[in-house]
Protein 1
Amino acid sequence: MSKQTSVVVPGDTGFSRTQITTIKDTVAVGATDSELQLFLFHCERTGLDPLSRQIHFIKRGGKATIQTGIDGFRAIAERTNVYAGNDDYIFNNDRTMYDMVEHKELPKTATATVYKIVGGQRVAFSATAVWDAYCPNEGQNFMWMKMPYLMLGKCAEALALRKAFP
């Protein structure tokens, strides 16, 4: 008796067969059919587009994780019609990225502030991300070493966006 696998059916998830194949081959590499179906349902439910990198399927240690990307958090905020922009990231409490780069310093913290219209007023929501809590395998992650300010800043921005737009 052969084991039957489930098949993700176009229409069940709002994606065409071609899109499902593309997602499985590029975005959700290594996903089982059940994991892929769960990922696609989550994409449809949240209205986030995996092909434009708003949401990610990640497998770590054999376990599937669905992760919203910074563009996904920004899209969610924008859809509310009360998102009112953001400030540049601040590093190590009061420094700009340009000052940090000039002095060849890695960030220890990044703070992001996003704004939301609440009761007709533009209200700030800030959050701080700490390098040691977010940088995976320090020194071994290419993107974190190549763009440390952007990577830590995006973590802080995601925290602030989740505060303002839960």
Protein 2
Amino acid sequence: MSEVKQTIYCLLKFGEKQHIQAFRSDGLLYMKPLAEFTKLESDMARGDCFEGTTRIVQSKHVGEFIFDTGKLGLGKFTAKPSDFAGPVRIGLHKTASCNVYCMFAVTRPVHGELVSIQNLAFGDSFVLVLNPPEFLRRVVDAAKDAGISYLEHRLVEYYDAEEYSGETGRFRKRSMFAYQNEFRIVVEPGSDTPRKLILGSLFDITSEVLPLSDINQILDFSPRSAREAGLSW
């Protein structure tokens, strides 16, 4: 998969009201360990057992699997594609060893509702980041001030979990999560506990904190509205 460059018109952050207020007033980014998302089996929005996977291989794309234990008495053994219940997942520690911050990206006008109701599982409130370039500039500056050695941010790509074989990593997720339109910020070194990155007040580049249940009544990013706002895509 090649990375597709897209314009980000605005970013949305969903969550509980007190957390969204802290994001707006203090610029608090509560960045969870990537590996934590594999453990949230009961959380249909956040939990994903594929998180932290480096590469997946569809068994149907392989003629035969040969496993070499490298140990005396165990040796090698083979397995047929039909022996596997799903794709083979390969996860390297360096892939999962990071902390992440996730947002919803608006990259194009949308006919109908902008946000899928599945996103209501993230909390009761939301806020718009109206100037993504300035927001990301502040993220980079705050990361430098905090002594963070590595930071990467970009849109998540989505793949067909039944057909795709190849690299997955930190910025690819199964298409079942495509409704999240995720934009992800990743920092290293990774921590087993959440990292807090403080940007300072974001009042000048964000909307008020608004009820998430009303998001599709509040926001209109239809092609007509985008044209009237002078936006191109």
Protein 3
Amino acid sequence: MFIDGLSPLANLSKLPSIVSLSILTWGIELLVYFAVSEAFATPMSVSVLVLFMVTVNFSSLIPAAPGAIGVIEAVTTTVLVSIGIEKELALSMVLSQHVIQYLVVGIPGLAILSTWKKQVQNIEQEMQNA
């Protein structure tokens, strides 16, 4: 299934829509980081917001506890402190972002995954009955 999911990348006619949707997705995510910085009365330049976003996303790739809980907070807080944000404020911002991520991405993703699991089970059952 993973390889099949990458197949649109081999189709050049789909490339413009893939790039456009990727830019839209990253733009929406960047707006979340902007909203978090505004909620904590910590205005950030676009470059700092991008750094915040990139740090969270790349630190989530480090093997850790489920959901990368702890790693994202430690790495991103350290990066934000290195650019002059107070440690407590940086940690609060990172924690808030992580909660938002779970609410907006995790819960709907879990719901979709559960429906896919049922569909896969139905397909497997049909194949066994055939």
Protein 4
Amino acid sequence: MISPFFSHLLIPFLVAMFLAINMGGSGTGPSFSAAYGANTIRRFKIPGLFGIFVFVGALVAGKRVALTMGRDMLDPDEMTLVVTTIVLLAVALSLFLANLLSVPQSTSQSAVFSLAGAALYLKNFNTHKLFTEIIPIWFLLPLAGFFFMLFICVLYDYFNRRWPHLKEKLGNPKLSRILILLSACYVAFAIGANNVANASGPLAGMVTNELGIDPADEKSFLVIAILTTLLIAPCFAIGSSLLGFRVVKTTGKGITSFGRNGAIAISFVTASLLLLVSVTKGIPTSLVQLNAFAIMALSIHKE
């Protein structure tokens, strides 16, 4: 027999799990496309490995993003069952449609603007957080990824000219396969640190409100955020298994056309920036945009 309290929570939790499944499907491509395209990992192993590193990333490095999504965008006092369900459903349906159409979409930006829309309607809009912290980072971080990628390319060329045997060592098939698989796991870890909170953060804010816990009590909020993460993060692996392979298969060969070293560099740059902004600023950020600017920089350099 389910208690009335938990039966009320069931709907928003199911919606959050549906959102997490869709995020898992869309996040598999940026993380494991290169590894699959380079024949480094078999198809059936991807969801498990992806899910493990997303789960670990969310628990180890996702706390600050959970705080942002759970209480900084919208006062937890306003995070009722209805509001939370509407916010999560809006993001989940938009991402589900994007997955069906194979159109890249930033879950983080959708989640932030959904919360902002609810906050604006409830006349509780935190404009300072959105316009002075989040949106500037959205503009600056992809540019930083672009120039960081260019710097790595120039540095690689310099070392290759200075020590010609370096390219041969880095081109060792066994080492290359290990590095490309590690880079895929690194991206999955960064996705866990940033994207899981898009679903678990609002849930934590809602549960905090329902239990009557003071939102200023950061320790209590983080405990609840960890508990919601334990439920939401494994759904990324389910989404990867159900929805992720089509994207991985489609984009895998395209990414590896840059060469294995190029694919490793793209993964390293995007994951590092995503992880950095998650741990230091707690800002949900688009991995799709970081990937696009890193690929653009590599393409310009190769020309």
